[in-house]
Amino acid sequence: MHVIIELSYLLSSILFIFGIKKLGSPKTARQGNTYSALGMLLAIVVTLFDQHIVTYEWIIIGLVVGGAIGATMAIKVQMTGMPQMVGILNGFGGGASTLVAMSEYYKLMDPTRGFTHQDSVTIALSILIGAVTFTGSFIAFGKLQGFVTGKVVKYPGQHPLNAFLVLIVLAGTIYEVMFPGTEWLMLTLLSASLLLGVLLVLPIGGADMPVAISLLNSYSGLAASATGFVLGNNELIIAGALVGASGIILTLIMCRGMNRSLMNVLLGGWESAGSASTTAGGASDKPQGDVKSVDAQEAAMIFDAASSVVIVPGYGMAVAQAQHAIRDLTNLLEKKGIKVRFAIHPVAGRMPGHMNVLLAEANISYDKLYAMEDINDDFPNTDVALIIGANDVVNPAARHDQSSPIFGMPILNVDYAKTVIINKRSMNAGYAGIDNELFFYPNAFMYFGDAKDAVSKLNNEIKEL
Amino acid sequence: MVDILMQIYVFVLAIFVGFELITKVPPTLHTPLMSGSNAISGITIVGALLSAGAEQFTLSTILGLVAIIFATINVVGGFLVTDRMLKMFKKK
């Protein structure tokens, strides 16, 4: 039986690998997800035949309760709430890893069992990663949902406090190796890890959430791997490593999209990059000139004269739930023979791929969605670039203004389009807290209003032309 | 000692496989990739089942039960919501 179980775990790992491989194309992605789900089902079913499992009541209760909660969440969640959903799922995964490690700890405290050094180290590691993922994810969820501040949080003694907590965890682990089964020590280690999760995510600002969510995603995988080390189970190690690698890659893509180091994001905000420039540049560097604005009718006329349009969505589109109105706009323009494409910046929204999911929800064909590097050279041949709820990612200062905190960040070159229409609620600065010189450009027009209302009004005007 | 070395082998090789696979996923699918891979990290459920199914009812079993609930939310919620998203990705 043991051999059959181990081989089934191998097969399940292979299903995970094929499942992720099939995520390489939107055509096969859904099938890939089914492969992964089958791999999981296989792993669960064969585990039930393990000789160590003798009672099933609790297992059935746990599966039914967890399954009902998970399914309800998955069915109810709105597409705009997807970052929160992924955040909270990361948290449950991390929490489960911690609980399994603790459960194993209490099993080994039984006088007939006893700890090896390896047990002590892997359990401590599993508790640490799992607990940080657990509380960190719930703080991230709170920030995205709006009941924890989305601002960058800084307080005196922040870094020494974090270092102190890491020290407690390290010392606790060493002590556990020397005196295994010291319960209060394990509980201290657990508390320090839980607190560390809160303190590590709290300083991260709202618009940096794509990085935080990706990193927590990676941690949830590494937590599963750590549990695999505790239990000596290769499948947990493999599956966890796959997810850990996935999260790290996404984290790096997000950091590159902002031209910032991971450290800079984790320590909170743009300040460390921008502090030098505020003294050097000062208020005199503010963009000067006139801002021109258009109403719906004027905007409609600009679109009517265009033959190619690129739409640039940002977090403002998600907040206003404007994706459906944008789909209608796309259809109207295409009916007039105008070519419409979407340009998506890697860090648009609150998680990797956030904009793509919302546009897919609105039934916009995925071959119209272009990544930044695939469309950036096309802006000079574009008649109208329409920006909806995006700001820093289209600020030309990133290209030429060395004193700007966002200097060097890759941006969408919308200013090269013949006309740029920027839909925004007001002239307020974006997340980086700097003015956008694009608004003052001669080819730029502001179109003020809530994204959904503004696009709907524009649609009505286009229909009447 | 041999055991843990073998496990480290497996871990490191799996990380490389992960890097190879994930770099081929296009940006448009990054959200489903996150939720789907997140569901895979719910594999901890295997450990949770072993904890909760032990013979005697102890603190260890209770922790296992909560772990099963958490991991099942992660697995079921993750795969279902990923499927919901991927269903919407259409080419016309």
Topology diagram in text:
The complex is a heterodimer of chains A (465) and B (92).
Chain A (H helix, E strand, L loop, with lengths): L1 H20 L7 H19 L9 H20 L5 H27 L8 H29 L12 H21 L4 H19 L7 H23 L2 H25 L3 H5 L4 H10 L15 H9 L3 E6 L1 H6 L2 H13 L3 E6 L9 H8 L7 E3 H4 L8 E5 L8 H4 L18 E6 L19 E5 L2 H14 L1
Parallel strand pairs in A: 1-2, 1-4, 2-3, 4-5, 5-6
Helix pairs in contact in A: 1-2, 1-9, 4-5, 4-8, 5-6, 5-7, 5-8, 6-7, 8-9, 12-18, 14-18
Chain B lengths: L1 H21 L7 H12 L3 H8 L6 H30 L4
Number of strands of chain A: 6
Q: Sheet bearing the most strands of chain B, described? A: none
- What is the approximate shape of chain B? flat
Bulk shape of chain A: elongated
Helix content of chain B: over 70%
Tell me the span between the first and last alpha carbons of chain B: 56 Å
Uncertain residue ranges of chain A: 271-284
Mean pLDDT of chain A: 91
SS element count, helices of chain A: 18
Category from helices, strands and their pairing of chain A: alpha/beta
Name the poorly predicted regions of chain B. none
Count of helical regions of chain B: 4
- Report the β-strand fraction of chain A as a percent range: 5-15%
Average predicted confidence as pLDDT of chain B = 93
Instruction: Give the helices and strands of chain A as they follow along the chain.
Output: HHHHHHHHHHHHEHHEHEHEHEEH
Largest interface: A-B, 111 and 82 residues
In order across it, which strands form the biggest sheet of chain A? 3-2-1-4-5-6
- SSE topology string of chain B: HHHH
What's the alpha carbon Rg of chain A, rounded to whole Å?
A: 25 Å
Number of domains of chain A: 2
SS-based class of chain B:
mainly alpha
